[in-house]
């Protein structure tokens, strides 16, 4: 990517080292000084040689210095100096018999500017290093670099403990000149090498990274990284509109970062603008890049973007954890079954000054919390209870909401010079039909607007949504034979396997509406109201006037005037509205509609109307 990429998976450097002397220095190191692998990989251990301030750590940034033990390793220092380059984190790394370094790619932003040098000290021909499908053995006393952007792994099939000297470096002119005289994998055996002999008492000056990265990446680095990622994507053999959309999102990110830099530079008090841009781009890419992989290393593009974009803001996660959160006062929560007009209602009410919203539905803001993720809950359903509103989960959701929070003009709460300490949130997500107990615990003073739609029309629209492929929520749902799961996930969904699509959407409709009726009936009547989708379409100005009165925020005259001409289609409209559009599914829906009649009558008879 934006880092230096090698022309081959492996390059052997034209140097050769005294193996016996290297082994002797390694053997003198007490076993107690070796440390377990920082990620806990079994059979992997390391000994720190160069680290942040020379300490026992695995930090990758900041002032690097030799660990005290390196002063007792004369030849190791001479070996490290022979590469004539600036050194970052450097270690001796061991791999036990039968152990492995599992397949992975190094896609942290750290690797954008760095390469890794390997000098095998103790090894065996059955220790194999595989990079991008090319497998080699690095022999004792040799020097190698490899393209760690590509998939790679190591397996120790021998009966000995492998030991390598491993150094991270940004390189230098002398180092890359040395690398240019090396040999790619196929020619490594014939490469003439220069012996690096031990020189007793010789000084071996080492150069170390000492400059900690700025909190924010320079626009040139951001632009270069994004353009190279785009170039990678454009090399895909079968490009689609999805590729183009994601490429545009990455270029937009680079251009907007440049614009923010021109306005604010790296001033800490303006870091919120960059954080919001990162979060918005990751959210946009999450939708556009689903399933796409980079041709260069087959890694999911969204995984790379998560690493790269976060890496462009050093301390990004710490900033998020410390960012302010407003007081959410009397949130307005629209609840509904999917495809029943909730987006239309939400987009209309979002134009009222004094209401703040997330700009879209809150799927990611809730489900990115590990304890609330359906995947981590066995995909039981989208239901959340009051017990799920633990302090940690509550803090996580509110922080995620704050990152997206914007007013009716689109201004972000976090980026305002003087944001209001309290806000009225307008929230809408169909999955929230199954999360009302959680929301009541999260927002004890919330008020609810329940919009429902006739079963026939609603189910017809839900079938359209499933068939469109635009509303897939769980593309790889375990135990589900297909098509990819769309819309909300009710309890008992596994019992729908093999059933007609009409049965599936009927189950979703029933689960959502029944849960809403059951939960709202437990609240005081002054905290909720009901309206029919048909009312909203027939009299939008009247509905908004009554909704605003219930919320306690007057609608602007401009909004009321615009509603006199009717409602524009919502962002999720699939096709132009027309009377009885659902009847194209009439034969499929006829067997299930009768079974929903009682619940439909209950919805229509609710008397707490808006």
**Structural class given helices, strands, pairing?**
alpha/beta
What is the helix fraction of residues, given as a range?
A: 25-40%
Using only C-alpha atoms, the radius of gyration works out to 30 Å
**Shape call:** elongated
Number of strands: 24
Task: Report strand %.
Answer: 15-25%
Sheet having the most strands? 10 strands, mixed
The unreliable regions are none
Distance between the termini: 55 Å
Mean pLDDT: 94
Notes on the structure:
By secondary structure, the protein is α/β, with parallel strands linked by helices. The protein contains 19 helices and 24 strands. Strands 1, 3, 4, 5, 6, 8, 11, 13, 14 and 16 form a ten-stranded mixed β-sheet that branches. Strands 17, 18, 19, 20, 21 and 24 form a six-stranded parallel β-sheet that branches. The chain has a four-stranded antiparallel β-sheet with strand order 7-12-9-10, with no helix packed on it. Helix 4 (about 220-235) runs antiparallel to helix 5, helix 5 (about 240-265) packs antiparallel against helix 6 and helix 6 (about 270-290) packs antiparallel against helix 7.
Give descriptors for this structure:
610 residues; alpha/beta; six-stranded parallel beta sheet; 19 helices; elongated
Write the SSE topology.
Elements: E1 10-12, E2 15-17, H1 19-27, E3 35-36, E4 44-52, E5 64-66, H2 74-81, E6 86-95, E7 100-104, E8 115-122, E9 127-131, E10 134-136, E11 144-146, E12 152-156, E13 162-169, H3 173-180, E14 183-184, E15 194-196, E16 207-208, H4 219-234, H5 241-264, H6 271-288, H7 301-311, H8 316-322, E17 327-328, E18 332-335, H9 342-349, E19 355-356, H10 363-367, H11 391-404, E20 422-428, H12 436-442, E21 447-452, H13 455-468, E22 472-474, E23 485-486, H14 501-520, E24 528-532, H15 533-538, H16 540-551, H17 557-563, H18 586-593, H19 597-605
Parallel strand pairs: 2-15, 6-16, 17-20, 18-20, 18-21, 19-20, 21-24
Antiparallel strand pairs: 1-11, 1-14, 3-4, 4-5, 4-6, 6-13, 7-12, 8-11, 8-13, 9-10, 9-12, 22-23
Helix pairs in contact: 4-5, 5-6, 6-7, 13-14, 14-18, 16-17
């Amino acid at each position: 990517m934006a880092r230096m990429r090698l022309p081959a998976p492996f390059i052997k450097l034209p140097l050769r080292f005294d193996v016996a002397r290297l082994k002797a220095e390694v053997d003198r190191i007490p076993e107690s000084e070796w440390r377990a692998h920082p990620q806990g990989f079994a059979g992997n251990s390391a000994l720190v040689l160069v680290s942040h301030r020379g300490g026992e750590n695995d930090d990758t940034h900041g002032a690097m210095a030799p660990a005290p033990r390196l002063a007792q390793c004369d030849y190791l220092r001479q070996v490290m100096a022979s590469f004539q380059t600036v050194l970052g984190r450097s270690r001796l790394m061991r791999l036990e018999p039968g152990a492995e370094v599992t397949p992975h790619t190094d896609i942290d932003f750290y690797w954008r500017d760095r390469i890794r040098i390997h000098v095998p000290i103790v090894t065996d021909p059955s220790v194999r290093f595989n990079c991008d499908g090319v497998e080699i053995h690095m022999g004792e006393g040799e020097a190698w670099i490899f393209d760690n952007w590509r998939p790679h792994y190591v397996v120790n099939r021998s009966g000995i403990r492998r030991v390598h000297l491993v150094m991270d470096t940004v390189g230098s002119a002398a180092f890359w000149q040395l690398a240019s005289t090396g040999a790619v994998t196929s020619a490594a055996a014939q490469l003439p090498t220069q012996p690096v002999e031990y020189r007793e008492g010789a000084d071996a000056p080492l150069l170390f990274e000492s400059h900690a990265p700025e909190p924010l990446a320079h626009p040139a680095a951001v632009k270069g990284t994004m353009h190279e990622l785009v170039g990678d994507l454009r090399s895909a053999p079968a490009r689609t509109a999805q590729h183009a959309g994601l490429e545009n999102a990455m270029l937009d990110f680079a251009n907007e970062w440049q614009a923010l830099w021109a306005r604010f530079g790296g001033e800490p008090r303006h870091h919120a603008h960059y954080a919001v841009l990162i979060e918005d781009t990751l959210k946009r890419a999450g939708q556009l890049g689903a399933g796409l992989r980079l041709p260069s290393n087959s890694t999911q593009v969204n995984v790379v973007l998560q690493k790269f974009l976060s890496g462009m803001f050093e301390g990004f996660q710490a900033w998020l954890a410390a960012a302010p959160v407003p007081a959410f006062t009397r949130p307005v929560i629209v609840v509904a079954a999917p495809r029943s007009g909730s987006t239309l209602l939400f987009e209309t009410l979002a134009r009222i000054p004094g209401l703040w919203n997330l700009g879209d539905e809150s799927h990611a803001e809730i489900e990115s919390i590990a304890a609330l993720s359906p995947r981590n809950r066995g995909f039981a359903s989208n239901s959340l209870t009051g017990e799920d509103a633990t302090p940690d989960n509550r803090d996580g959701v509110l922080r995620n909401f704050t990152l997206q929070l914007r007013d009716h003009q689109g201004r972000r709460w976090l980026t305002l010079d003087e944001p209001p300490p309290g806000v009225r949130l307008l929230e809408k997500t169909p999955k929230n039909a199954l999360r009302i107990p959680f929301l009541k615990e999260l927002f004890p003073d919330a008020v609810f607007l329940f919009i429902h739609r006739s079963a026939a029309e609603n189910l017809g629209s839900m079938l359209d949504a499933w068939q469109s492929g635009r509303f897939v929520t769980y593309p790889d749902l375990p135990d589900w034979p297909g098509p990819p799961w769309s819309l909300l996930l009710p309890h008992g969904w596994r019992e729908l396997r093999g059933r007609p699509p009409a049965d599936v959407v009927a189950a979703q409709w029933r689960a959502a509406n029944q849960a809403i009726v059951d939960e709202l009936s437990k609240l005081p009547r002054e905290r909720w109201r009901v309206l029919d989708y048909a009312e909203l379409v027939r009299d939008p100005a009247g509905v908004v006037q009554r909704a605003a009165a219930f919320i306690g925020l007057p609608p602007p005259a401009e909004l009321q005037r615009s509603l006199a001409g009717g409602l524009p289609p919502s962002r999720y409209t699939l096709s132009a509205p027309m009377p009885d559009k659902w009847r194209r599914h009439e034969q499929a829906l006829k067997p299930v509609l009768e079974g929903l009649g009682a619940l439909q009558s209950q919805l229509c008879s609710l008397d707490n109307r808006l």
